[in-house]
Amino acid sequence: MNNKVENNGVVETTEEKVYYDVNNLEGEMLRYRTNSLSYIFGMLGIVCSMLAAFLVLNSLVWDFTVIIKILMNIIILLFGFLSIEKVKAYSKEYSYVLIGIGAVCVARIFWGPLTLIIDYSKYLSSDKTETGKLGPTVVGSFLRNNYLWQSGYFRGITSMVFLGAAAAFFILAGIIGIDKSVKYAKYIATQDTTKGV
């Protein structure tokens, strides 16, 4: 880079050494910044997934399927956090894992929340005698279980919204992660990385 400095009528030209690729500033920025956008979307996905899990698990009767749901939520939490940490460092493979977790969140909509809505409809149509898999927070005393509305419709639809948002956030984080990891790989392929990345 040439700099011209005027000193008492004499023009001096100095040469500065540039330590970055001036032709590809986006690649340089990828090299020294993390993929924070995917990280933020992944964290939002984890939060929405956990809120949906708390809502569904609080609304259903505790049986063997609840244990499976708890274990599945723990796996989603652990793999989701691992994946967003790896995607933050431009891992293409873990971007696909995030998309897979998003697909699992879509499938979860048809298990807990749908069961909640169907059983609540049966509960209302049977003059509140057939409880199905509804827990005490839905069919019990409102005064003892009143941190949320008892309506199974409200709880089911709210958990569907949370799971849909979680799926969208995970899938979006994965797509952004794939895009940025491809750009990063293309840039690094043109660089001399013999002394480190």
- Residue share in helices? 55-70%
Spans of at least 5 consecutive residues with low confidence: none
**Neighbour order of strands in the largest sheet:** 1-2
Mean pLDDT: 85
Backbone CA Rg: 26 Å
Q: Could you give a short account of the major beta sheet?
A: 2 strands, antiparallel
Strand content: 5-15%
Fold and architecture overview:
By secondary structure, this protein is mainly alpha-helical. The protein is built from seven helices and two strands; from the N terminus they run E-E-H-H-H-H-H-H-H. The chain has a two-stranded antiparallel ribbon with strand order 1-2. A hairpin with a 2-residue loop joins strand 1 and strand 2 (10-15). The protein is elongated. The chain starts with a strand and ends in an 8-residue tail after the last helix.
Topology overview:
Blueprint: E1 2-7, E2 10-15, H1 25-32, H2 36-59, H3 64-88, H4 92-109, H5 112-125, H6 136-139, H7 152-189
Antiparallel strand pairs: 1-2
Helix pairs in contact: 1-7, 2-3, 2-7, 3-4, 3-7, 4-7, 5-7
Notable traits:
single chain; 197 residues; mainly alpha; two-stranded antiparallel sheet; 7 helices; 2 strands
